[in-house]
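task queued by scheduler; priority normal; single chain, no ligands, no partner chains; default sampling; output format set to C-alpha cells
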Amino acid sequence: MSDWMIYGANGYTGELVAREAAGRGLKPILAGRNAEAVGTLASELGLPHRAFSLDAPRLEGVSAVLHCAGPFVRTSRLMVEACLAAKAHYLDITGEIAVFEKVLSRSREAEEKGIALLPGVGFDVVPSDCLAARLAAELPDATELTLAFASTRGSISRGTMKTMIESLPHAGAVRRDGRILPVPPAFHAREIDFPGGRRWAMTIPWGDVATAWWSTGIPNIRVYTGTPPKAIRRMRRIAPFLPLLAWKPVKRFLQKQVEKRITGPSEEIRRTARIELWGEVRNAAGRSVTGTLVTPEGYQFTAVSAVEAAERAAQGGVPPGAWTPSRAFGADFVTGLPGVEAFQISARPLSS
C-alpha cells in the first residue's frame, strides 16, 4: 500500500516526479487541487490519487509528502502545518530563500513530532548544497563561499517562472557576516571557470544563500548563474523599475501571461542538456579550494533526486528535525544519482 504522496503531481515538475516514481515501480499517492488532472495522470500511471486543497489537507495514512505545488512562498507553510499535524515527513522542491529560512527554523517542532522537514530536494538545491558541503569539509575554517551554475541549454517551466515573479521586486540577495541582505539585480558579475570553459556570470538570489549557511556555517555566501554580458547589462538597466512589480495586480497579470505562453523544457532538452556547477571556499588567510560538478538538466535531475529523497524519508532514513539535503544524506548524495559526474576538487596556495 502507498504510504507517501506527491502533492502538485499535475504540474510540470510534479508530473515528471510522478513518472519517475512510476518508472521505478513505486506507488506514491498522486494529489493536487485539480481532481480531473490528477485523476487522469494517476489512471495512466496506475497509481492511487486524492484531490484536496491545502486548506483541507488529506494526509491520513501518509508517512511522507513530496510537495511540488508552488509558488512555495504561498503554499509551503500550509503543507508544513499539515505534515506536522499528521506526523508525516515534509519534502519540497523549492528554491526560495524565504521558504528555506522558515522551514529550516522549525527543527524543534519537527523533532517533537518525530518527523523530518527537508526543503529543496530538487536541482534547487541538491547539487550546489552537496558541493558546498564537500568544499567546506576540505577547508573547515572557510569564511567565504561562492557557488555558480550554468546550463549548456534549456529553459524554465511555467511554475518556476511564476515563482520568480512572486518574489519580485526582490531581485538579489547575498549572505554577509551571517545575515541575508537584499542587493540589486546583477549586483556583481565576474568570469568563472566552469568545466566547459570560462563564462560570465551574475549574482542571483539562489536558495544556497540560505541553505549553504545551514549546511556549512560559512558566513559570507554568493551564488552566480552563467549569463551573457549583454543580458547582465539589460538586467542592470531595468533595476530602477523593479519596485513597480511589487504591486499585486502587476504580478497577477504577469503570471497569467506565463500561463498562456510558457510550458517548460522539451523532453529532448531534458535528456541532452547538462548543468555545470563551480564552487570556491576561501579562509581568512587567503587559502582557497575550488570544486566542480556536472549534472543532468535541472528538471530531469529534480525528478530523480526528489524521488530518491522521498523514498529515503518514507523509509525512515532521515532523523527528526529540519535538514538541508547534504545534512540529511551527506555531501556524496548527489554523486550517487544517475548521470552526475564526480566532484573535481583542487586546492590553491595562499594568496600573495
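post-processing summary
- Confidence is low (pLDDT under 50) at residues 155-162.
- The longest helix spans residues 298-314.
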